Amino acid sequence: MAYDKFDILTSTAVPLPIENVDTDQIIPARFLKATERKGFGDNLFRDWRYNQDNTPKRDFVLNNPIYGGKILVGGKNFGSGSSREHAAWAVYDYGFRCVISSFFADIFRNNCLNIGVLPVQVSADFLQKIFTAIEKDPKAEFEVNLPEQKVTILATGESEPFDINTYKKGNMTNGFDDIDYLLNIKDDIEKFAKSRPF
Amino acid sequence: MSAQKTLFDKVWDSHVVHQIENGPEVLFIDRHMVHEVTSPVAFLGLKNRNIPVMHPEKTFATADHNTPTINQHLPVADPLSANQLKMLEENAKEHGITYWGLGHEKNGIVHVVGPEYGITLPGATIVCGDSHTSTHGAFGAIAFGIGTSEVEMVLATQCIMQPKPKRMRINITGELQYGVTPKDVALFIISQLTTSGATGYFVEYAGDVFKNMSMEGRMTVCNLSIEMGARGGMIAPDATTFEYIKGREFAPKGEAWDTAMEYWETLYTDPDAVFDKELTFDGSSIEPMITYGTNPGMGMGISKDIPTFDAAQGGASTYKKSLDYMKFGEGDKMIGKPIDYVFLGSCTNGRIEDFRAFASVVKGRKKASNVTAWLVPGSHKVEAAIKEEGILDILTEAGFELREPGCSACLAMNDDKVPPGKLAVSTSNRNFEGRQGPGSRTLLASPLVAAAAAVTGQVTDPRELMQEPVAG
């Protein structure tokens, strides 16, 4: 599925300075019963965001009107656990287009890249600087520049480069997906398939 | 002399269809396992593109995540679950995919039935929209979990794009103590590496402990590879592996078996092959393990005390949040903590060997009155073996009931939910907040530890209830 192109994103950010945020927290299993990709944002961080009687938990960051924006900033090892792409869908559907952390779990990172959410891995130091900037001013803005592979704290001008492979970067900036690419080399795949013993 | 290769390199390199410049590799997939939860949107994608499944004969579907574990002969009550199951059935039918739905004699957890029917083979590439696909690495396969976009990719093209992971080898030497199981070995490794210690790596498990392990045990270990962040884990196939596979329904037969064996016998790490990272632990130092926190890396020997904040890995605030959720304190002993629920099952510990272990402890004892126990076989085949081997009689005598196969309380998508605040000893794979039901608290452990808890009503060292066989 083609998705929105990603170029330069300038936005405020929502801080979640917790380590090892697993995909069961991002979207609990009981919300995985849908058969279409719709409405997952409503249940993003469901059990951190709502009490069991469905009233909002006042101390959770998504319920604090001071914070907002298209960037989610999480602690180390973000997105560990289950492979559920529903977690990335929930992040996207809520309105985030970028997640910044000092470390991502593999499957979550791939899932994000496949649906047009940019995972940006920065150093632990720079992540702390981002958290500090938001703490100082919840309206602090950040620039995530995909063409230049650089994230900047606009208030201080400090920036740090980030990695992404050239192929995936091209897909993100153009809104292409992998399946189109693979269907173009279908003959090679079929030839290879014939050589497999089982 | 040809270049020295690891087991992982041998299998990976033989599946590369295409290398994208400055990008991922295109890897051919031999086996694609599909279940009801992560596939509907992928099938919808095929429909929107108006393309078929490229190789339905390499695709296998089973319903497991969202199925009830009682009264499976009745219609599924929850309309959303029923709809998801119906979608899988319709999609499988439309695309000509082998389908083992609810009630089918071969139905069970995807990672239990794959090996049981010989779908899982050494040297194969296997994917599924489930992170515990790493289980199949026990056979010397490259097996890993994928997201739904990737499920669609594999359905459409029988390939997946992946950057090649780095290589790690974990050696466990020596011999395990009595009462220490493969689950304890895995929880020990994760406690040493943390939940992100192997991220970016594909792990090979080596050493005497794994050589002497049954296929069920190897599956348990490889299953938990994802819990330390690894893309997957694998063990070189050997006589134990080949003996397990031979004669199973989908395994090669006759001449095809001989050809396969010729290839499979080349699947080992060459003596001078190089790993990006290598770790060695002494197997005899491992004791029965239990977790005390909200990720699988927060585990320790069952006789130990919960570490203090400063001794723990990771941020102090995250650690404190975790202990607060569990209602535990620094320095607490786990032994003696009263428990409410016991869950035996899942793709980690839902195989026949796990039920044998559980039964060996509860035999001649009674379930504690304060404990609710859910015993859920991984498949109908496991269920049948439990009955044939007389294990069901032992369980019934001790006051336990057997449920029907499925993922059940491991992820609590169905009705098998541990209530808020209740403490469960579980043989499954994740102790995340709310994993077994909103507000539930989970202690991960082996089937032996689960059995000891089930009959004593508290966290108990199973070795106290077991008779060590006299050597000689």
Q: Layout of SSEs?
A:
The complex is a heterodimer of chains A (198) and B (472).
Chain A: E1 8-11, E2 13-16, H1 23-26, H2 46-49, E3 71-74, H3 86-94, E4 98-101, H4 106-115, E5 118-121, H5 124-136, E6 142-145, E7 150-153, E8 159-161, H6 166-174, H7 178-184, H8 186-195
Parallel strand pairs in A: 2-3, 3-4, 4-5
Antiparallel strand pairs in A: 1-6, 6-7, 7-8
Helix pairs in contact in A: 3-4
Chain B: H1 7-13, E1 16-19, E2 25-28, E3 31-34, H2 40-49, E4 59-62, H3 79-95, E5 98-100, H4 110-116, E6 125-128, E7 142-145, H5 148-157, E8 159-162, E9 166-173, H6 182-193, E10 201-206, H7 208-211, H8 215-223, E11 232-234, H9 239-245, H10 254-264, E12 277-282, E13 289-291, E14 299-301, H11 316-326, E15 341-344, H12 346-349, H13 352-362, E16 372-375, H14 380-388, H15 391-397, E17 423-426, E18 441-444, H16 447-456
Parallel strand pairs in B: 3-4, 3-6, 4-5, 6-7, 9-10, 9-12, 10-11, 15-16, 15-17, 17-18
Antiparallel strand pairs in B: 1-2, 2-8, 13-14
Helix pairs in contact in B: 2-5, 6-8, 13-16
Number of helical segments of chain B?
16
**What composes the largest sheet of chain A?**
4 strands, antiparallel
Uncertain runs of chain A? none
By DSSP (H or I, 4+ residues per run), the number of helices of chain A equals 8
Q: Going across the major beta sheet of chain A, what is the strand order?
A: 1-6-7-8
The most extensive contact between chains is: A-B, 58 and 78 residues
Shape of chain B: globular
Query: What oligomeric state do the depicted chains represent?
Result: heterodimer
CA-based shape of chain A:
globular
Could you say what the CATH architecture of the largest domain in chain B is?
Answer: 2-Layer Sandwich
- Overall pLDDT score of chain A: 96
For the largest beta sheet of chain B, what order do the strands appear in spatially? 5-4-3-6-7
Domain Aconitase A/isopropylmalate dehydratase small subunit swivel (chain A): 6-123
Subunit structure (chain A): Heterodimer of LeuC and LeuD.
GO molecular function (chain A): 3-isopropylmalate dehydratase activity
Keywords (chain A): Amino-acid biosynthesis, Branched-chain amino acid biosynthesis, Leucine biosynthesis, Lyase
